Amino acid sequence: MEPTCTKRYHILDFLRGLAVINMVIYHACYDLVMIFHVDWPFFYTQGAFYWQQMICISFICISGCVASFSNHLMKRGWIVFGAGMLMTVVTYFVIPSQIILFGVLSLLGSAMIITALIRPFLLKILPVIGLSGSILLFLLFRWVDMGKLSFFYLWEYELPVKLYQTHFLFFLGFPNKEFHSADYFPILPWVFLYLTGFYLAIMVRNYVERTKHDKLLSFRIRPINFLGRHTLLIYLIHQPAIYLLCNILQSHAILK
Questions:
Q1: Terminal CA-to-CA distance of the chain, rounded, Å?
Q2: Cα–Cα distances in Å, from 84 out to 8, 18, 185?
Q3: What are the distances in angstroms from CA 130 to CA 117, 187, 201?
Q4: What gap in Å lies between CA 79 and CA 73, rounded to an integer?
Q5: Taking all residues of the chain, what is their mean pLDDT, rounded to a whole number?
Q6: For residue 180, what are the contacts with CB-CB under 8 A and spacing of at least 6?
Q7: Is it the case that residue 29 has pLDDT exceeding 90?
Q8: For residues 66 and 63, what is the distance between their CA atoms, to the nearest angstrom?
Q9: Cis ω on the peptide bond leading into residue 189 (within 30° of 0)?
Q10: 3-class DSSP state for residue 150?
Q11: How high is the pLDDT of residue 255?
């Protein structure tokens, strides 16, 4: 039976709100270092990389969770994908050095569309198998953009070089040597993380329906939940706002 959403699980908005706050802080730091040349060595460390990955992983996984409740996934997918295309056009004309080609919005929109198309098939798979398979496939394809399939340090397979010699397969995870994007999340491997969230939410919902232990799922802090309910709008406006603020600070010699 296809799951339907009969109530709002506020914990998802709360977690998404926390991710939004983290994202805005990270992007402010990114602009300061990469565009306005503020000297901050930490931003080039593994710690900063893990911070960025944590934000993205949380967004993608939570979006997958929400997909298991959505009754309008296809429509929302095209809206989010369109927003991703808008980011590409704006960055191309405004900051070409920081152009975004298939960033997180393009990924999320694509994942929503794909999930909407194959949802009947996905729901035929036992949630625990779907969850386990999605995690394994994510790990297997994690470094596909680096030219290989791998599983931790136990196994590795070099993919055919020809996959990375075209200009047209970057959206799948096969960028060529000239490819550059300030924000890059191809369908492989990230769609599998999205499906991890999809199946995780189904498992949690099934558990809640059996046990009636739903108190945690109703947790919320209203200001943070408000941000979580408006993530797309915040994503679209926060970078221009940060860039404008940094320009003002620089013009007043506050940024040097």
A1: 60
A2: 26, 21, 11
A3: 16, 18, 11
A4: 10
A5: 91
A6: 99, 101
A7: yes
A8: 5
A9: yes
A10: strand
A11: 67
- β-bridge mates for residue 158, sequence order: 148
pTM: 0.91
**Structure-model confidence comparison of residues 133 and 95, the more confident one:** 133
Residue type at position 201: A
Res. 7 pLDDT band, cuts 50 70 90: low
- Residue 248 has what pLDDT? 87
* Burial group, residue 59, by CB count within 10 angstroms (0-12, 13-18, 19+): buried
Domain range list for the chain: 10-251
- Give the gyration radius of the chain's Cα atoms: 19
Q: How long a stretch of residues is the chain?
A: 256
Alpha-helical regions (H) of 4-103: 10-30, 46-67, 73-94
What is the Cα 89 distance to its own chain's centre? 19
Query: Which residues does residue 151 pair with via DSSP β-bridges, in sequence order?
Result: 155
d(CA 196, CA 1): 19
pLDDT at 242 over 80: yes
**Helices 127-141 and 187-211: angle between axes, nearest 10 degrees:** 160
Cα separation, 242 vs 46, whole angstroms: 24
The pLDDT of residue 1 is: 44
